[in-house]
Amino acid sequence: MCGICGFYDPDNRLPEKQALLEKMNAAQKHRGPDDEGICIEGPAGLGHVRLSILDLTAAGHQPMHYQDRYTVVYNGEIYNYIELREELMRAGYAFRTNCDTEVLLAAYDHWGEDCQTRFNGFWAFALHDRQTGRLFLSRDRYGVKPLYYTQLPGYLLFASEIKTLLTDERVERTANDAVIFDYLVNGFVDCTEETFFNGIYRLEAGCCMRVDPRFGKQIRRYYELPYRESLSGPVTEETVRTFRSLFEQSIRLRLRADVPVGSCLSGGLDSSAIVCESSRQLRAVGGGNGQKTFSSCYRGDPNDERRFMDAVIERCGVDAHFAYPTGDTLYEDLERLIYTQDEPFVSTSMYASYCVMRLAHENGAKVLLDGQGADEILCGYRKARVYYIKRLLRAGKPVRAAKELLAYLPYMRKGKNVSLLADLNMIRQFLGKTSSTDIRHRYLESSFAKRTLRNSYAENDRFLLNDFDRIVLPALLRYVDRNSMAFSIEDRLPFLDWRLVEYAMSLPLNAKIDGGWSKAIMRKALDMPEIIRRRRDKIGFYTPEKAWMDAHLAEYRAVFAAPDFRAGRYIDAAGILADWDSLTRGKDDIGLFRYLCLEKWMRIFDVKTA
């Protein structure tokens, strides 16, 4: 796991090339503290910082050269590199290292751009072909690893993080109004190729880019997730066995490393299943019970999930570690967290993840397994249940719909920090209901509030696919990448093995939601303590956001009262201040943290409005 950066400058417009690469590398050194390198050849400049996970020797140094023709900088892991290396050796290739980077280079030489479809893993890489003068960039199927770029007059820059691009002072720091509108109204981020910065783009998941002097920049999609939704179908023992086998294979591949592999543990189904299966496999190969887990807990909070974590810890005998974030620590770390993320984020749940990664780093972890992706492929969200019930009604199955609704009702949101209103707002959002009088528009600047949303749940025919490739998962992947790499940790995601994803997405909806149970097939197929298998009250990645905000209300209010308030183009700060008491009592849920995060982001990155 690493950080990559570089440029493509066919007309030699870019001055001080080496100095720029050095600055870019320094800006993302946290992604790879073990080694670094730069290389300039022809129109291409490549930079790399390395976190050593496979082949810890100097043989894995990057930029890596191959056959006197190719040079690559690469961020990620190709988990099936051993199998690919054996196949390539049969085709006549020889290898001098034990790392997957060299396998990537040989694969590109042998299969060309088709090599991307043979990789099982996550990656972002830039490969320069000195013979053709072409720069080739690729991002993995589901966008687990990031890759950003910006086009300036005469040259292109790319990097693993936006802050790296900003080291070039010619890159403008101008806010993207359309992205900010989606964010403030619906809490949507990372939905398209656009970022919060005008002119800075992300290479989208499953896409690659060719850049050469003759044809300029060309982007194409090399992977499209096959998906055709079916409402119901047979769920047999063979279905369950296949799901279990694919999950076990995914874990086995993701335990490949030359350093110990730990896990995040939240107490939910996803992380619990990962810890149980990885512990089983480690014991089977003599790894004992030395696996470390890392969790976030909240002292005195009724929604704290420590008892569920303890059930997994007792079952697996892992070495457990706990972080205890508070409103005070959030206040201390907030600006650092926003800088880490590069762009605004939706809620304080990102802070819990940040604290878990910091804890893991303090305890020597370099690789963690994590549960992102399970909710999207297995209908884990409440909105998916609403969608399923609506599909049943449209299909003329009112009795089945009523049974699902009655089974679900007792488990709708409840408790001190969450409410039924949150579920009802979610349903309204799913239906695409919005208007100029919507509370989500109330505290927007009046002319800005008249904009039109670009992303919503109105496209109901691709609802689940929307969550996976546009509305939910891309944002989660950005959050976990920045938080983990801020502390030089590689975060591996077993539920996003492409074979498991494609199988899960091929299953009928009744395999995922059944009798009020979400993730039904997962509950049947995977090992976990019964107290977790039987729970229906999981409320997502919970943090006590209101209590945390309450701890420093005066300081947060001062942000909106500042005479040099930067986000005035977007936010009616005076209106927020006038209603401050009712907003902070929780009477109206406008996502106040989002407004705060946007303003702080503009200050931290010195962002201007168009």
Account of the protein in words:
The chain has four domains: 2-176 and 191-221, Aminohydrolase, N-terminal nucleophile (Ntn) domain (Glutamine Phosphoribosylpyrophosphate, subunit 1, domain 1, 4-Layer Sandwich), CATH 3.60.20.10; 237-378 and 464-533, HUPs (Rossmann fold), CATH 3.40.50.620; 382-463, no CATH class; 552-604, no CATH class. The chain starts with a strand and ends in a 6-residue tail after the last helix. It contains 25 helices and 17 strands. The strands form three sheets. A six-stranded antiparallel beta sheet has the order 2-3-1-9-8-10. With 610 residues, the chain is α+β, with helices and mostly antiparallel strands. It is globular, with a radius of gyration of 24 Å.
Defining key terms:
single chain; about 600 residues; alpha+beta; Glutamine Phosphoribosylpyrophosphate, subunit 1, domain 1; Rossmann fold; six-stranded antiparallel sheet; globular
